Amino acid sequence: MCETDYSGYPDCRDDTLKSLQVALNLGMEARFVVDTPLMWIDKAATFALARDLGGQTLLDLIVEETHTCYLGDRTHRHVWGYGCGACPACDLRANGWAKFTATAA
User: Fold this and answer.
1) 59 within 8 A of 51, measured Cβ to Cβ
2) pLDDT for 7-24, tens place per residue?
């Protein structure tokens, strides 16, 4: 979850996650904490964090096994991963990858 470069869907906002946490705590009568470590970093920083934590192996895994495409497209493979390449989420991921690779060189 990331509010920094979300494409307008309210479920990606910090306020939404905090509200869900309150609802869980009330509904379960227990204390739950919903951690969102990526909330305030953009996609480029997320790619950099993956590389820093797990090297090229983790970065390759994330590119190959995850996607952010709102259409759920797993048929089109781009350098940044799978997706339609046209929806707002794919634009964010593609731009984040471009920024990451430009600064990683």
Assistant:
1) yes
2) 677 788 899 999 999 999
